[in-house]
Write a structure and sequence with these properties.
Layout lengths: L1 E7 L2 H6 L1 H5 L4 E5 L6 H11 L1 H6 L6 H14 L4 E5 L1 H5 L5
Parallel strand pairs: 1-2, 1-3
Length: 95
């Protein structure tokens, strides 16, 4: 069985799950990796914001979600278990 672990980008998460990744027990898939552009990072944070999304349903969210789904679809096969860190679900990346 193949295991894919999805977690939000951050030094603490990579440190916390380091033993699983180093021992090749899971395939890491980090989301929300910062861009080199501050403007793109700001736009992504606005799109992921619960406060904003409760008031306005912003268009073009697939710009942020598409890379995650593309990467995930290439990794998933018949015998795959996907594990989500709660932070990955909380930021709105998972629909």
């Amino acid at each position: 069985m193949k295991y894919i672990m999805i977690w939000p980008y951050g030094w603490f998460d990579s440190y916390m799950y380091r033993d699983l990744v180093v021992n090749h027990m899971v395939i890491p898939l980090c989301i929300d990796k910062p861009s080199k552009s501050r403007i793109m990072n700001l736009l992504r944070r606005i799109h992921y914001s619960y406060k904003v999304n409760r008031i306005i349903n912003l268009p073009y969210k697939d710009v942020w979600y598409k890379p995650l789904y593309t990467a995930l679809s290439q990794l998933v096969d018949k015998d795959t278990c996907i594990i989500f860190d709660t932070g990955a679900i909380a930021n709105g990346s998972v629909k």
